[in-house]
Design a protein that fits this description.
By secondary structure, this protein is an alpha+beta fold. The chain has one domain (3-93). The chain has helices spanning 3-15, 46-51, 83-93; strands spanning 24-26, 33-34, 38-41, 43-45, 62-68, 74-78. The strands form two sheets. A four-stranded antiparallel β-sheet has the order 2-3-5-6, with helices on both faces. It has a two-stranded antiparallel sheet with strand order 1-4. A hairpin with a 3-residue loop joins strand 2 (33-34) and strand 3 (38-41). It starts with a helix and ends in a 10-residue tail after the last helix.
């Protein structure tokens, strides 16, 4: 899967947890990580991206959005566990080779 359709999937996933009080936004394209078998999309509040205001950082808990290239499956990493460990576990369970470290 190319980057543009993966980004649209990530936006759709992000919309499910978005808040009108503090809208969320994906990180800029140059900060999205290609781990080989998936794209990993970080996100934060739109206000933080625009201003860097520490009061605009979203609460802890949710991690980046993963979009698997060969299936278009999207899921969110858990903020409470190693991101790379979660990616490695998913890759092993689904027949992918995880060689690019993340986080």
């Amino acid at each position: 899967m190319e980057f543009a359709p993966a980004r649209e999937i990530a936006l759709t996933t992000l919309a499910r947890i978005d808040s009108p009080d503090e809208p969320l936004a994906l990180f800029p394209d140059d900060e999205i990580v290609d781990v080989g078998w998936a794209w990993v999309f970080g996100y934060t509040t739109a206000r933080w991206l625009a201003t860097g205001d520490p009061d605009a950082v979203p609460p802890p808990g949710g991690g980046p959005i993963v979009v698997v290239k060969d299936t278009a499956e999207a899921w969110m990493l858990l903020g409470s566990r190693s991101y790379d460990g979660q990616l490695k576990q998913y890759a092993e369970q689904h027949g992918h080779v995880h060689t690019v470290r993340y986080g």
